[in-house]
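Entry, Tuesday afternoon. Goal for today is a structural model of the target with flavin-adenine dinucleotide bound, before we commit to ordering more compound. Inputs were pasted exactly as handed over by J.K., no edits. I checked the ligand SMILES twice against the vendor sheet because last time a stereocentre got dropped in transcription.
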Amino acid sequence: MARVVILGAGIAGHTAAMVLRRTLPKEHVVCVVSPKPDYNWIPSNIWVGVGRMAREKVVVPLAPIYARLGIEFIQASATEIHPAGNPNHPGPYIVATPTTPGAATESVEVAYDWLINATGPKVRFDRTPGLGPDGGHTHSVCTDRHAVDAATALDAAIQRMKAGERQTLVVGMGHGTCTCEGAAFEYTFNVEHELRRHGVRDLADLVYLTNEAELGDFGVDGLVIRNGGFHTPSSVFAGSFFAERSVQAILGAHVQAIEPGLIRYETLDGVDHEQRYDFAMLLPPFTGVGLKAFGAQGEDITDTLFAPSGFTKVDADYTPKPYEAWKPTDWPSTYRNPTWKNVFAVGIAFAPPHPISRPRTSPRGTVISPAPPRTGMPSASMARAVAENIADMILGRATEPERLSSMANMGAACVASAGSGFWAGNAVAMTMFPIVPDYTRWPGAGRDERFTFGEVGTAGHWIKLVLHHLFLYKARAKPFWWMVPE
Amino acid sequence: MTTKDTPMTTQTYVAKITVPTPTATTLWMRGFLPWQLWRFVWLNLKMLRMISLSHPTRRDPSAPKAP
Ligand SMILES: Cc1cc2nc3c(=O)[nH]c(=O)nc-3n(C[C@H](O)[C@H](O)[C@H](O)COP(=O)(O)OP(=O)(O)OC[C@H]3O[C@@H](n4cnc5c(N)ncnc54)[C@H](O)[C@@H]3O)c2cc1C
């Protein structure tokens, strides 16, 4: 009998748990440790954040699903990993603090034979003074609850406009090293749509503030999109949409501090600026969740498992090298920790070898460039591959991970809806293949032009709606859920 | 794409409109249902193909085993 423990029940962890449970015979235990009682389909938080979707529509309670599937669920926040056990606890185990309201808060020890870290990011609002909804002055859509608060604040701004007051709305990135630019891009155009729907667009200055040096970078060094008979750089493609919707863009910006009504930021040329705002939704930078690791004698071995960023070290090439020397093969394909072979990390939790965007610093040395995105589709794909590899090794079908799932060999789709309503919605649909460009295979653009395309229209909006319903169907483990591709 | 042509107090570094913008026909086509239905089918097929290309590859049996 083997015990597979999965930390986190987000897109990556939940996928891994369901695939493992479906693949492994019942004598093997699949156990999920996660602090929240719900699964959150984060991409639809955007719609919650503009008040167009109820929070309940983007969350799914986990306990009933896991009870039905036969997955053990411990509602707790993991804090420590003991990959070598210790004299009192011979095998490897993790330590977690229960988070069920009203339950005991004494730490629990959970033994494992195989461990998948899928804890996603720690949202680091603390990296920028004044950032974030908890004690700061800005809003966020990173969690379902943050999105609800953002919607309330946005509505208040809309009401002020209805009363004739001009408002400045700022959406974007709250730090020079943020990732998830696609989400901020999407939120910007959902806000723009709401302003028009409420008939107050002319009273709003809408500003997109980003650490990207160019529009359309999206943390992947931009794309060359096939569109309308042209190979169009994403800076032009995205820029066209900004121009069409009269959204101003502040590029190459590192937010230094936020005061009530004022954002202070530095740009790539090293100059300080200020931006006034009445409503701001700024995403935070991410790090790992801060798990610690201890050896058999209680010694701190965190650095064998985790990079300084707190993300888990896997089979990537972490040798520091300049942008020009980056290779697709730097990227991991098995997500296995090189020291502890029964530990894997998927989704945002794995440490990328380096960014994908060209690194940039201001003359003052401030890093202002996007961290690499690990969006939903690749997170779920790598989770499935890792789950199937572990199942094969448990069942004796393989001695090492046989399925290779690298972001340099995997595509991604970004569908940024810009408005709702079944018949009238619009979306910017973009796909790329692969996520990590390969200039040897595709000289010039670095990506396969057949699958790197973008267009705007209602069709993209329908795709976004289909994805919402399909992935929530899958998350609920309804009949034939496993046929829904990642 | 970006310029610093406004005073250095607020809202500097504003993107200039130096990009193509859609014509009235393009805007109309974006919401024209028969065309969009076709685009929906086309986009789905393209994405499915892209997803199938993204499936994990099998380790090359001739490749050296990990230590
Ligand atoms: C607003 C927004 C919109 C987005 N839109 C899109 C989109 O349209 N398309 C797309 O592909 N991607 C999108 N993304 C990115 C996508 O949401 C992420 O790529 C995806 O959620 C990553 O999955 P994950 O499982 O690694 O992390 P998460 O989904 O963040 O899951 C992490 C899990 O770990 C748990 N956890 C945290 N700490 C601990 C701990 N100490 N112990 C145990 N468990 C822990 C969490 O509670 C959670 O269950 C968006 C992101 C944001 C923020």
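The longest strand of chain A covers residues 72-82.
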